[in-house]
Amino acid sequence: MAELVRVFLSSTSKDLQRVRDAVIRGLRKTSDIHVVGMEDFPAHDASAVETDARYLDGCSLFIGLLGPLYGSTPTDQPGDTSYTEREYEEATRHCLPRLMFLTDDDFPVPQRLFRSEPSWKLEQQDQFRRRVSGTHVVGVFTASDKLATDVVTAVSKWRIDQAAGENTRSQKPPSPKPKVDLTPWLDALIQRTGHIAISGIGSGVGRTRDAARYPIEQLYTTLRSRGDAEADAPDRSLTLGDLMSRSRRLLIEGQPGAGKTTFLKLAATVLARDCLGRPGPQGGHRQDHWSEEGWRFRQNGGWTAPRGWESQTEHPNRPVTGVSWYEAMAYCRWLSAETGRAFGLPTEREWGAAATPDGRTYPWGEPAPDPERANFAKKLGEPNVGHPTPVGIYPAGDGPDGHCDLAGNVWEWCRDVEAAGLEDRVERYGPTKALRGGAWNDPAGTLRAAGRNGDRTPRRSGVVGFRVAAADANTVEH
To answer: 339: buried, middle or exposed (CB in 10 Å: 19+, 13-18, 0-12)?
Structure first.
């Protein structure tokens, strides 16, 4: 068994807490690494240097994460040294190897944090970063998942270099090469490639939202492969596992932007998961993501995918339709479990706050709907387009906070009951839930932000979809 290595991790928390947490998780997946940091000792005070020195004494390696903010100091007075810089100086005095990672210019930091940071701290952090960058910088980063992988890789390389140096100094014949446990590397690979970041629908306000991350195996559409001469099968759906089992090499062709890089991320995720012997995701079709009533309707209806799913996968950038209210809720519960964040269908009040926070007639304001702002019908039976359109192609129709397609395209399920139904009919057909926004086959009058509709919860209409809302954990209905 490899010798336990104590690693001291230093960073600010105000701008890098999420990044720091990801790095700690990545390092702790390697059983022979023990991470030491500010989580292990009491709150900082004037004797912080003594505290840091005590914990650094037993460490073999120092890892520093430097963001744009300087962080806290003992007195918070101009000229004072931050705890992070003090830890770096103490590591230098202990002659510890230092692996430093710096944020790049694209690293997202809320403007409120910059506004609250005194100018003298910003200047000192800039000086600190310049001083470090000339000696010990291993890499720069924007995303936390990539950084976690880079840190684990850098630590592994450092350990290999250390072992090689010790062997050279001892002049002993090399010992037999031990069997390498690839689990931490495969886990790190899955963490790096297993999600797709979609800008504009994460946390935050308007167009400054953080990108939301979704599991790639759930978002990637069904792959289609041209049949070979032996099988003599025309285009047919195959899983990625099927494709890889038929050949060790795959030729990926496509124009720029066709998704070749995303496909390679999917391939890496699937193959790493298979090497670890882990099953693929079941998504929202696990029973624990459903209410008892919803699961009953699912079983009775034999639902395994949205209605018309095979044809929908040919247009992956359109909103998903043909889903019941229960399927939409199950998806939200699955997404919450996958991301660790609470999601749910919006209430009508929440939906209205996005579409008309100031009483406007339409999400974009007062002008009447036109083909530049939304996908709708000239009149009943005469649609402008005739089908759902890709999300976001009507920027002139965006809501005040940047939400796309709040009017037209497809109706959207809400969490609220639209109207109370007769109890004997609810048991058979399900309750009625609210729908908002209008659809591509509805006339302009239906697109008013205050307009509303409703349908039975098991109904799976081709003009009805849904959007998710970030929610407090206790508001996600079960």
So the answer is: middle
Name the phi and psi angles at 217, rounded to 5. Answer: -70, -20
Long-range contacts of 115-120 (CB under 8 A, 24+ apart): 117/69, 117/70, 118/78, 120/78, 120/79
pLDDT at residue 468, rounded to an integer: 93
Point out the least confidently predicted range of 110-119, 170-179, 368-377: 170-179
- Give percent helix, percent strand, percent coil of the chain, each to the nearest 5: 40, 15, 45
Nearest to residue 410, comparing CAs of 329, 328, 472, 471?
Answer: 328
Q: Using 50, 70 and 90 to split pLDDT, how confident is the model at 227?
A: very low
Q: Check if the beta carbon of residue 270 is closer than 8 Å to that of residue 217.
A: yes
Task: Say whether domain 309-475 belongs to CATH 3.10.180.10.
Answer: no
User: What pTM did the predictor assign?
Assistant: 0.46
- The CATH number that domain 5-192 falls under is 3.40.50.450
Domain with CATH 3.40.50.450 in the chain: 5-192
- Beta-strand pair 98-103/61-66: parallel
Tracing tokens 């744009």 back to the chain, one arrives at: 68
Q: Give the type of residue at 459.
A: R
Ranges of beta strands (E only) in 50-148 are 61-66, 98-103, 137-141
User: Which phi and psi (to 5°) does residue 309 adopt?
Assistant: -65, -40
Mean pLDDT computed over 2-26: 86
The residues near 423 (Cβ < 8 Å, ≥ 6 apart) are none
Give 422's pLDDT tier (boundaries 50, 70, 90): very low
